[in-house]
Write a structure and sequence with these properties.
Strand order of the largest sheet: 5-6-7
Largest sheet: 3 strands, antiparallel
Number of domains: 2
Strand content: 25-35%
């Protein structure tokens, strides 16, 4: 069976391969152009990568107030995050990584 490798236009940079960060410093705010972090500057991403990012985004706490009584989870204990982190005791979503 062949693995699909079709690419899509990157939703972050809209195919340009570039994005702009707003940098806040002592002299005020300025724009910093960088290579797109989602597509690594190619302007294209696979559906598999978008699906993986959606699953990771969905694993974060969605509770009002940012998570109730979070508890510590050691490295490698959960499939949704291999790194040590804190989970919300109400919804089980990630509150903080590291």
């Amino acid at each position: 069976m062949e693995i699909p490798t079709a690419t899509l236009t990157c939703p972050t940079c809209k195919g340009t391969g570039k994005q702009t960060l707003a940098v806040h410093g002592a002299d005020g705010e300025s724009d910093l152009p960088i290579r797109c972090v989602l597509c690594d500057g190619t302007g294209q991403v696979t559906q598999a990568k978008l699906d993986a990012l959606k699953r990771f985004a969905d694993s974060w706490c969605q509770c009002d107030g940012g998570g109730d009584d979070p508890y510590y989870v050691a490295d490698g204990r959960h499939d949704h995050c291999g790194k040590h982190h804190w989970d919300c005791s109400r919804c089980g979503g990630i509150v903080q990584i590291g």
